Design the sequence.
């Protein structure tokens, strides 16, 4: 199959600016995008740099942006992705590029994995043999652990794009593995750790991570489960991260009061009524929102029909939680 | 210039296990690896870990099965060491978080794999290697073990028979540096890329085998090249043999089962019979059911879909034998020690003597864990007996000159890629599942010819950063060493034994050939010697 590969090129050694180069590739229908890149490097341009290791979807080394979507190059056939005869290959986004398709995962991923301290400390008393654990308890841990650390969920994350301090869905999926492992002896400590600023509460629920995971591991849902577990254990981030606590309280109070979310009030109460600097930061957003009809003036938040019933549901849920 | 007590070269399961053992012994240890540890080939290991648990099995029985598979070439001391201690290693891995599958009592579930007389393979779905690798990595970051990633060790520094460290090339920058160490553990993995196609990752180029070989050490049992019966697709993918233990049925194209129930044969016999079946074979999971497939074949369910377009619960998966691993490697004792003081080896690059002429499914990963631990501990113990010495900067001069020569060679015609491709094709064609003298002679001639071409080949790309052609140059050098050793040993062994099958010598000849082959680097190329099998008289 004849295909045009448009490949991102950047070589800091020769001082040139990043650009796309075009290559013609003729490979069998079964060929993967990785086969295409290897063909280009071996036959046409030995200076092309990219990472690849296992060639079977086991190691996560070949995560790339292929035709504008994050994919593992070794597991994607050219025939499946080609559009009008063209395959465009770029590094994943929001990450420093070192050369061509090789990017720097150190700050983007590896440091964040370390930050959630994902190691297991054997729970006391440590048995002589294996821990006796129900298969159901380990099945989801195993699945979460099958993550190949490709970084594609972080690449798709809407928060990391603007806040590099968010540890992100990959590291929090790793945290899930430890939090829900019944053999771990540092359950509460880890929950406290991931409840700090930059942790589970910085997720904005866009669910992009789920859509970007090539293994279908649903990182967003796992992050939520870690958060739910923190709440169940009474670990709220209030003392360490008061903004999150204010956001949580405002959200809940708004829905209880009016049956739905008062977004304007949520933004103000989350920043804190006495936090002048924080409130000032909201202004540009408000100014941009007005002409787009996203902040109707005069601002008035009214009660929705059925608000009383919604309040009763919340009260009931809160009573059962206690 | 960096200096450690113990330097581990390679970040796969054996390397990480060695690093943890050395750290726990209280020495200063660091990792140096060609890829990030989590990209290591260990991640593809899919069968599990073997150990006898419970009253119906014993480590002696595991040892007997191992020795029987090894067809008279296992060193019994090594086999016994592994089989006796593997259960403790597996329990420890459970305690630090490998999510092994559980049975209905909540204890370790076990697969019954070919050649084992009891179900004794603990597994974490069909991703045990991945799970062990990730778990060990978690513990290594907890211990804050320094890790130099994307560094290629280009040579060992051996002075007066004592290993003083390694010289290495940083792939991202092209920088050369010396890493001084009182002990070095080679855990660089296998050499599967000496064949094509193979199940090997891009990194499996026999780097450590070649480093040891060039330092004068012997490579043992290199003619023993194992094929995996359940390769699929055109690339490195393969199904876990656990599929057979779980009830998937291997069928001919008419849908008739190939194997007798409850008696999966050893891999070598299965591979030869599959290779001779003209119309191929399929692996049928349909009787297992979607739910169980999802729970036990996390990798395969996804990969069959992505790579072969097959949903395991609705259609059988076409499979074929594929070159899997070189069973031989750097000759070591049961502590991973080599004949060079301060140099240890473990994992797929090493030959402590457990596999002999054929490896049982699951024994390779088990050996990486057990002998990785032992090599790490032994390397740490060695540190106090050595007067540490820093490698002189002048040691890098030779490597710098080599690079200058390589970069100054003319670049017309041959490339490292064409030579590597020719080598891997030659090995697959002439040194495959069934061998004979004529093919092996042809292979020897081709390898010698490629070796000559290698000494003249130039590089088209001269950049320093991530110069893959330069990396391939070094890897090809290692692959040529490995190929030379395989062909030499295969030619000399004029019998059939285990995975080494010669159509011109189909019988096993214990009287003349029950000994290890040992290939060393002679002035005129590979030179073959033999070494006795320890306790061979007891082999079953």
Sequence:
């Amino acid at each position: 199959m004849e295909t045009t590969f448009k490949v991102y090129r950047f070589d800091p050694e020769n001082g040139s600016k990043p650009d796309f180069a075009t290559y013609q590739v003729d490979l069998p229908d079964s060929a993967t995008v990785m086969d295409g890149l290897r063909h280009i490097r071996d036959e046409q341009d030995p200076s092309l740099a990219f990472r690849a290791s296992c060639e079977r979807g086991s190691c996560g080394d070949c995560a790339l942006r292929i035709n504008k979507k994050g994919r593992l190059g070794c597991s994607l056939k050219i025939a499946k992705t080609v559009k009008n005869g063209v395959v465009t290959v770029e590094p994943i986004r929001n990450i420093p590029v070192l050369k061509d398709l090789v990017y720097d995962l150190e700050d983007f991923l590896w440091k964040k994995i370390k930050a959630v301290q994902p190691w297991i400390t054997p729970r006391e008393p440590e048995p002589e043999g294996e821990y006796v654990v129900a298969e159901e308890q380990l099945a989801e841990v195993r699945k979460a652990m099958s993550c190949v650390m490709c970084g594609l969920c972080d690449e798709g994350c809407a928060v990391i794009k603007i806040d590099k301090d968010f540890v992100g869905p990959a590291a929090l999926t790793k945290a899930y593995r430890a939090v829900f492992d019944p053999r771990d002896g540092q359950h509460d400590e880890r929950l406290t750790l991931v409840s700090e600023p930059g942790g589970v509460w910085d997720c904005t629920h866009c669910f992009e991570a789920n859509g970007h995971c090539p293994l279908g591991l649903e990182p967003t849902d796992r992050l939520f489960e870690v958060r739910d577990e923190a709440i169940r254990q009474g670990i709220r981030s209030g003392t360490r991260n008061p903004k999150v606590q204010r956001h949580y309280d405002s959200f809940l109070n708004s829905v209880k009061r009016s049956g739905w979310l008062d977004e304007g009030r949520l933004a103000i109460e989350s920043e804190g009524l006495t936090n002048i600097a924080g409130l000032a930061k909201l202004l540009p957003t408000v100014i941009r929102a007005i002409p787009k009809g996203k902040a109707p003036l005069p601002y008035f938040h009214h009660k929705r029909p059925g608000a009383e019933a919604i309040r009763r549901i919340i009260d009931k849920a809160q009573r059962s939680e206690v | 210039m960096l200096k450690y007590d113990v330097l581990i070269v390679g970040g796969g399961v054996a390397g990480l296990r060695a690093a943890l053992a050395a750290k726990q012994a209280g020495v200063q240890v660091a990792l140096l690896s060609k890829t990030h540890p989590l990209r290591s080939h260990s991640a593809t290991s899919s069968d599990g870990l073997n150990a006898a648990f419970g009253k119906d099995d014993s480590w002696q029985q595991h040892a007997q099965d191992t020795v029987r598979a090894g067809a008279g070439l296992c060193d019994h001391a090594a086999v016994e060491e592994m089989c006796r201690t593997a259960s403790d290693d597996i329990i420890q891995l459970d305690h630090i978080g490998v999510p092994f599958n559980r049975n209905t009592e909540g204890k370790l579930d076990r697969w019954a794999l070919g050649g084992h007389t009891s179900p004794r393979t603990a597994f974490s779905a069909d991703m045990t290697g991945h799970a062990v690798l990730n778990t060990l990595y978690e513990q290594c970051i907890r211990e804050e073990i320094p890790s130099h990633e994307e560094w290629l060790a280009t040579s060992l520094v051996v002075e007066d028979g004592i290993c003083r460290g390694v010289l290495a090339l940083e792939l991202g920058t092209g920088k050369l540096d010396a890493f001084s160490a009182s002990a070095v553990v080679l855990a660089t993995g296998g050499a599967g890329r000496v064949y094509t196609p193979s199940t090997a990752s891009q990194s499996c180029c026999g780097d450590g085998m070649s480093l040891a070989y060039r330092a004068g050490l012997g490579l043992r049992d290199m003619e023993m090249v194992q094929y995996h019966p359940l390769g699929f697709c055109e690339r490195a993918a393969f199904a876990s043999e656990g599929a057979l233990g779980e009830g998937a049925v291997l069928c001919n194209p008419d849908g008739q089962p190939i194997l007798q129930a409850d008696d999966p044969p050893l891999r070598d016999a299965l591979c030869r019979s599959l290779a001779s079946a003209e119309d191929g074979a399929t692996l049928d999971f349909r009787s297992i059911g979607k739910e169980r497939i999802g729970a036990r074949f996390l990798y395969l369910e996804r990969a069959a879909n992505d790579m072969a377009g097959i949903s395991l619960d609705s259609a059988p998966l076409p499979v074929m034998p594929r070159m899997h691993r070189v069973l031989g490697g750097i000759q070591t004792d049961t502590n991973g020690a080599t004949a060079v003081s301060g140099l240890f080896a473990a994992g797929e690059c090493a030959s402590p003597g457990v596999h002999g002429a054929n490896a049982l499914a699951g024994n390779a990963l088990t050996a990486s864990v057990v002998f990785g631990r032992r090599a790490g501990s032994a390397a740490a113990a060695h540190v106090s007996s050595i007067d540490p010495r820093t490698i002189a900067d002048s040691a890098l001069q030779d490597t710098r000159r080599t690079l200058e020569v390589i970069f100054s060679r003319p670049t017309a015609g041959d490339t490292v890629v064409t030579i590597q491709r020719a080598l891997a094709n030659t090995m697959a064609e002439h040194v495959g599942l069934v061998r004979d003298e004529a093919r092996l002679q042809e292979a020897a001639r081709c390898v010698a010819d490629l070796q000559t071409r290698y000494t003249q080949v130039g590089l088209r790309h001269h950049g320093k950063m991530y110069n893959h052609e330069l990396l391939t140059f070094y890897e090809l050098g290692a692959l040529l060493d490995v190929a030379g050793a395989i062909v030499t040993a295969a030619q000399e062994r004029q019998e059939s034994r285990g995975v080494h099958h010669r159509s011109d010598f189909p019988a096993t000849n214990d009287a003349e050939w029950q000994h290890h082959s040992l290939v060393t680097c002679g002035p005129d190329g590979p030179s073959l010697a033999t070494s006795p099998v320890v306790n061979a008289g007891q082999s079953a």
User: Anything to note?
Assistant: The radius of gyration of chain B is 22 Å. The longest helix of chain B spans residues 468-492. Chain B touches chain A through 66 residues (CB under 8 Å).
